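Q: I'm writing up a methods section and want to include an example of the input and output format. Could you take the sequence below and give the corresponding predicted structure tokens, formatted cleanly so I can copy it straight into the document?
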Amino acid sequence: MVPRILIASSSAQARFALRCGLESDGHEVMETNSASQIVDLACSEVCDVLVADSLIDHIAAHAFCREIRQTSNLGIIVLDRASSSSAIDALNAGADDFLSAPFVMAELLSRVRAILRRVARPGKKQIVLPDGIIDMESRTITRRDGHRSHLTPKEFLVLQSLITPANKPRTHQSLAQTVWQRDGRGEVEYMRVVVAQLRKKLEPNPDNPRYILTERAVGYRFHIPSEQAAS
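A: Here is the clean output for your methods example:
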């Protein structure tokens, strides 16, 4: 199926430029200029990636990102035309990536393709932990108390990258490079945001984690108890 991208911008000129670039890369494009429509369209399961300005109708991206993440795992890229703080707010609210203006279309297209690779479902696999189950197919975490959390594409990729070499540390930079498909040096701060989000969904006590452990001066390590196994 042809990937479908939702463009959200108050600027007709910006929407036209984005549509031309995305369609030339083989994507089907939908668009909106209304913040009130973003959540409905994004959660309708008819699109794969949302590309949105950081501010639409005086509503910041983190507001609609947070609402979208309550029901949808689609990829979200925020076009940050304001400041790094707005980018951090959007990432905290569930955005997968951001791109600061001005930017070249080739870079946006590469990030859209990276997001589309992340949202592809892996083979069936469950990791059973003392406090819950990680389902790698549905990209969900179900804790022992029954609370179920959906992982964003970005969170899933980080978790998958940590689990694959379980009990072995991964550096901040290598994780950031895996997630953002770049050298990773400028994304370490945002990687910490992603890890904090994962701990809230996985750990019984995020402030005293059992599974996603910090390796001082190195990065992170996913600890799987020796008696547990992936099925």
